[in-house]
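User: Some background: our group keeps a shared notebook of sequences we're curious about, and every so often someone picks one and asks for a predicted structure to add to the entry. Today it's my turn. The entry only has the sequence so far, pasted here. Could you supply the structure so I can complete it?
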Amino acid sequence: MNADSTYPAIMRENNGSKQVNRELIGEEPLSIRIQGNPYSVVLRTPGEEIAHVAGFCLGEGIVDRPEEIATIGFCDGSDTNVVTVTLNDARKERISDLLDRRGYISQTSCGICGKELVEELRLDLQPMADTVRLETEKVLQCLLSIGDHQPLRRRTHASHASAIYDEKYRLLTAAEDVGRHNALDKAVGRLFLDRKLNQSAFLCLSSRISYELVQKAARARIPILLAVSRPTTLSVQLAQQLNMTLGCLSENDGLYVFCGEKRLITASR
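Assistant: Of course. Here's the predicted structure to add to the notebook entry:
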């Protein structure tokens, strides 16, 4: 499966037109099955399906630790749009009510507006500890460099990216996708499967910060979210409840910090 393909287009400018070929980002459905049963279908850019589904399962509250996944893989070879997850017996028993629900709408993918009550979306989220202190200038530079981790965007002008860093401002992983929530699932899923998620200190996003992205970061225990665009009101409200830090670029390439500002400090000169 290709992450992008070339398509013809008519380019019109300066009162003239000509045919050109342009790369478009791929978008295909991915069916996620849990214990052999359909759980969710997401539209995503093909690639990194195993990490994507692992991050998705963490965000949904299906798993808390990698060892709770008994198996994860494609249903029929590697060129497929179906990934199935089986859980160990203890985890399967613990979340049996979640798996037995009917007419279920994924809690952390696009489309959460299908829920009747926002409180149903909160999952089992715990407030963050105040143990991280980072220099504002250094995290801002990481946010400003988000484009360095978007090769798909440079070709197609159509992808989102998520980049996760440790407390030393070192990049742990970055991922791209047509969907901002998918990009985060892929990045989180890699670290989750590699058992390195506990090294995460902050997260940079090429998109706005929406409710489900705060929820996913909270499940991954990443206390600081920075984004190119402004957060939504609902995302700030959730982040305040969970003692998280939310910020975005200001008009002059500075930072607006909407909550949790104590984690971002000014370096002494």
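Suggested note for the entry: The radius of gyration is 19 Å. The CA atoms of residues 144 and 253 lie 8 Å apart.
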